[in-house]
Design a protein that fits this description.
Distance between the termini of chain A: 34 Å
CATH architecture of the largest domain in chain A: 3-Layer(aba) Sandwich
CATH superfamily of the largest domain in chain A: P-loop containing nucleotide triphosphate hydrolases
Shape of chain A: elongated
Radius of gyration of chain A: 31 Å
CATH superfamily of chain B: MetI-like
Structural class of chain B: mainly alpha
CATH architecture of chain B: Orthogonal Bundle
Number of helices of chain A: 16
Oligomer: heterodimer
Number of domains of chain A: 2
Number of strands of chain A: 16
Helix content of chain B: over 70%
Structural class of chain A: alpha/beta
Distance between the termini of chain B: 49 Å
Order of helices and strands of chain B: HHHHHHHHH
Number of strands of chain B: 0
């Protein structure tokens, strides 16, 4: 259990940690998140005393850590840093056993640890144990970085944006791995990130920080449901809980780049316009941009005469919708007719846009998967 | 041919003796200079405050010509090998000290932070992380010190203490170029040979993991 009690840290006039208090339960995966400079990394480094607070107490399992020898303390806390920080002069095996060796484990124990650890992340011992960091990819290096932190089985592991520098694929693979390890080893993990997606994937509890204060501390679901303020909401961004579907309106699915034609235009202009835009029907508006109907290729083909205007052939038999109409009604309509789109109007009867089957599918996908 | 056998008869023995003396000066001064430079380099690296004052002073000191320094020491200590060795040791110390300081300062912060986070104390960080990573630069300093010392050792003859400089001064005095070369060529060969030897040493002591990185640079 990690407890912060009224912890304050100042650099000159700047208050980096402003009276922080919170508790992380044993076995919890806690993620510290917030805009840069919010104090999340400072909070993390306070736990292994890389940074000493000016005021307040940090306790681990009830003991005030300022009374523990800091070198001893750090050997009991795993630490993974942002830029990996594997020692380039040491092999994988030597890197993994840095802490066990500091703790004076026997050579046999160290060997066993290297075998066990590499096995845990499916990196064959014979292939990797004697490689140097420079001979491996970034993802492999950070896997070893994590193993180094776990090697002496510390109950607490601190991770400072460990996957920040990795490509998205490797990153999500490592996230899965760390979750798996956490489940298996039941560590208390404190993890700093600025990536909300990462936080939502990993956290049992998210601690959102801003200007050296904790804005909100809550499980991911809770935070999504009830973000404490605007900046939490902004950070959650696209991940924020999907609104109740019954409140979605036509406006949520609009395609606004639609091709319209003035009813006074000649059919020739109208046909040219269709060809240019590669469509087979156009929305017709009057001189005030108000909707008056549609015109299709078939409509034009069925008449002849050079002096005909769009107004002469337009059809006005379509049901139109308003921007604040229930999205489900538009959707039902779209599925029940042969038309490829439905027309949505603003309250002044000008055209707001159209809803196509594709735009519905796209908008739904965006809401579901971000 | 006749000339060569004559030269060997006349100078062979003293050439060997003087190469021996020369090497002795080089090894003694470089060893002492290396230990001093390494130690001071580490100390200065550890205390930034002093480094800011001491390093500039040292580099001014470094510009004093060796011949002047040996002359001054000679006044105080007299005609003893110690005079030469002390002077040369101090000159050998400079490049080692500077490179040790630079090599340590250039160790990336992340490695030190990782080491500290793993629970290493300062001594462990120094010996397990900082020094191994600085080794290539430190050996570079040793190489410079050795090559410089080979040429500076010529100055020993100035106060009558032998070494390959003896031939050079003698040659100048009696105006014989072949005698000057008898000192100059072995000195040059020594400098090159010792430089190569240290290159081999550098490859041996550089941790394998950072050798590749170095080659890439």
């Amino acid at each position: 259990m990690i407890q912060f009690e009224h912890v304050v840290k100042k650099y000159g006039d700047a208050t980096v940690l402003d009276d922080i208090s919170f508790t992380i339960e044993p076995g919890q995966f806690a993620v510290l998140i917030g805009p840069s400079g919010c104090g999340k990394t400072t909070t993390l480094k306070t736990i292994n005393r890389l940074i000493e607070p000016d005021d307040g107490t940090v306790r681990i399992d009830g003991d005030d850590i300022s009374e523990v020898n800091r070198v001893q303390l750090r050997r009991r806390i795993g630490y993974v840093i942002q830029q990996i920080g594997l020692f380039p002069n040491m092999t994988v095996a030597q890197n993994i056993t840095v802490v066990p060796k500091l703790l004076k484990y026997s050579k046999e124990d160290c060997d066993k640890i290297v075998h066990d650890m590499l096995e845990m992340v499916d990196m064959p011992y014979d292939q990797y144990a004697h490689k140097y960091p420079s001979e491996m990819s970034g993802g492999q290096q950070q896997r070893i970085g994590v193993l180094r932190a776990l090697a002496a089985s510390p109950p607490i592991v601190l991770m400072d944006e460990p996957f920040g520098a990795l490509d998205p694929m490797t990153r999500s693979a490592l996230q899965d791995e760390i979750l798996h390890l956490q489940k298996k080893l039941k560590k208390t993990i404190v993890f700093v990130t600025h990536d909300m997606e990462e936080a939502l994937n990993l956290a049992d509890v998210i601690i959102f920080m801003e200007n050296g204060k904790i804005t909100q501390m809550a499980p991911p679901e809770e935070m999504l449901k009830n973000p404490a303020n605007e900046s939490v909401k902004n950070f959650l961004g696209k991940h924020i809980a999907v609104d109740d579907p019954s409140t979605l309106t036509a406006a949520d699915f609009l395609r606004t780049n639609v091709v319209t034609v003035d009813s006074k235009k000649s059919l020739r202009t109208c046909t040219a316009q269709m060809m240019r835009s590669n469509v087979d029907s156009l929305i017709v508006t009057d001189e005030n941009d108000k909707y008056i109907g549609t015109v299709s290729v078939e409509d034009i083909k069925s008449v002849s005469g050079d002096d005909l205007r769009v107004a002469d052939v337009l059809k006005n038999d379509r049901e139109t919708f308003r921007v604040d109409d229930d999205a489900k009604r538009c959707f039902d309509k779209l599925l029940s007719t042969k038309d490829n789109y439905v027309i949505v109007l603003k309250h002044d009867d000008t055209v707001a846009g159209i809803i196509t089957k594709t735009s519905i599918a796209k908008a739904l996908a965006e809401r579901l998967w971000g | 041919m006749e000339y060569l056998t004559k030269m060997i008869d006349l100078y062979g023995e003293s050439l060997l003796r003087n190469i021996g003396i020369h090497l002795l000066y080089v090894f003694a001064s470089v060893s002492i200079g290396f230990v001093l430079g390494l130690t001071l380099g580490i100390l200065l690296y550890r205390s930034e405050k002093y480094a800011k004052i001491i390093l500039p002073v040292l580099s001014v000191f470094n510009t004093i010509p060796g011949i002047v320094f040996i002359g001054i020491l000679f006044l105080y200590l007299g005609m003893k090998p110690a005079t030469v060795i002390i002077a040369l040791s101090i000159y050998a110390m400079f490049p080692v000290l500077k490179n040790t300081f630079v090599g340590l300062t250039n160790v990336e912060r992340r490695y030190i932070e990782a080491a500290r986070g793993c629970g290493m104390n300062n001594r462990q960080i120094l010996f397990r992380v900082e020094l191994p990573l600085a080794i290539p630069t430190i050996i570079g300093g040793l190489r410079m010190a050795t090559i410089y010392t080979v040429s500076w050792s010529v100055l020993a003859a100035m106060i009558g203490l032998g070494g390959l400089g003896e031939f050079i001064y003698q040659g100048i005095n009696i105006n014989r170029n072949d005698i000057i070369l008898l000192g100059a060529i072995p000195a040059a060969v020594l400098a090159i040979a010792l430089g190569l030897l240290i290159d081999v040493l550098q490859r041996k002591v550089t941790p394998r993991g950072i050798r590749k990185e170095l080659n890439r640079r």
